[in-house]
UniProtKB/TrEMBL annotation:
Its biological purpose: Allows the formation of correctly charged Gln-tRNA(Gln) through the transamidation of misacylated Glu-tRNA(Gln) in the mitochondria. The reaction takes place in the presence of glutamine and ATP through an activated gamma-phospho-Glu-tRNA(Gln).
Range of residues in the leader sequence: 1-21
Domain Amidase residue range list: 16-459
Active site per UniProt: K27, S115, S139
Record flagged with keyword Signal: yes
Species name: Rhizophagus irregularis
Entry annotated with the keyword Ligase: yes
Name of the protein in its database record: Glutamyl-tRNA(Gln) amidotransferase subunit A, mitochondrial
UniProt GO cellular component terms: glutamyl-tRNA(Gln) amidotransferase complex; mitochondrion
Amino acid sequence: MILLFIFTFNIVGSFNGSLDGIPVAYKDLFCTSSLSTTCGSFMLKNFKSPFNATVINFLEEAGAIMIGKTNMDEFGMGAANVYSVHGPVYNPQSILFDENHFEKNDGDQRVAGGSSGGSAAAVASGMCFAALGSDTGGSVRLPASYCGIVGFKPSYGQCSRWGLIAYANSLDTVGILTRTVSDAQMIYDVISKFDMNDSTSITPDVRSINSSIPSFFKLNSNTDDLRGLRVGVPKEYFVSELGESIVNLWKKGISYLKSHGATIVSVSCPSTRYALSAYYILALSEASSNLARFDGVRYGHRSEESNKNDGMLYANTRGGFGKEVKKRIILGTYALTAGSYGNYFLQAQKIRRMVKSDFDRVFKRPNPLRFTKKDSGCNENKVDVLITPVTISTAPKIEDCLTTNVNNFINTYVNDVFVVPASLAGIPAISIPFGISSIDGFPIGLQLIAQYGDDDTLLGVAKVLE
Ligand code: GLN
């Protein structure tokens, strides 16, 4: 199944918002009161929420129309969107049509990327203007790069997570998928608001401190003059696994920004190499705790078969999770056990702190969360944004992802290597389509990363780069 897509025709009411009549789709982990919310899981196949996620309410108030919910990796766990009870998502860029407009398969079907693969495919194939996804560790940026569209992960806390079914609360971010950066900005302007239902929503006080700190671009800037902008190229992102055509496009992106007046600086983020392992310990630990609520009593499918042996009360019911989710719950539970907590969870937390400090060290702008009155403002020798690749390769073949075995299973996690550092630090990052691979012709995205709260500069530079 390409997409879990349920059309609704309840276009009612008179609109006068900034998104009047604009069709949008939502990843199937945003609660909607009019359609079911399955999280791509058998566990929630019959779940209907009594309320809408806050971001959906904001979009509806602005006039947007929900055209459906989109497929995803089960509970957001995956990078290829092949772990869904609804089946995998095919990358629209790899679907060919014969002269009668019927789909034909030339054996090179690619994944759309995950976990927001359905949202990316819906936007890339023109089914909607924009789609919401969630980005815990790259799930919006990675599919955007594979499908040749824009994927924006705002700073953690900018957009409310109320009604977004959690994978790993401290990392989960609402993400926006569109064809252009200006379209992403339109959606962002509507959903980036304080929400008292989300205890991690950035408060009005912090929002006003943030806007008092100088930044290169202010809201909705539309200039391509980048004189004075300093762009960092983190040397740790030059890894040996990086495909040649990706390196070439990365260099092209750097030259392009330079040709618009930006100054290019080499920077170092030494903790990057530990970020991927730390991410998988922290995300899985939080997931193992979050997913405890799907026990057939509070939420989720309940098995008819009863097994009342000691400790086995929930075994049949919990068997409703897919294989990847079960694996992650076990690994996360292990990392939190008394014997391994110190060696895994605490170490991963320390690495997370180091990754954050690396970013704070390279950016010009102080972090508004650690901003004090004696901060003298910006350090002009530092940088405004970083430019990096999004992935080490173009979209993998679908059959390679479906046939994961002991020899290739690590590959399915490695493609997250460039996207998880920004997630650990909670800072804004965006994937922008920047050309196609000279080897296989599939899209390649470049990633821009900015200081926490400097989403405006990120979007401003992204508009120049796209
Ligand atoms: N690929 C990552 C994971 O599987 C990211 C998922 C996400 O951002 N939801 O955890």
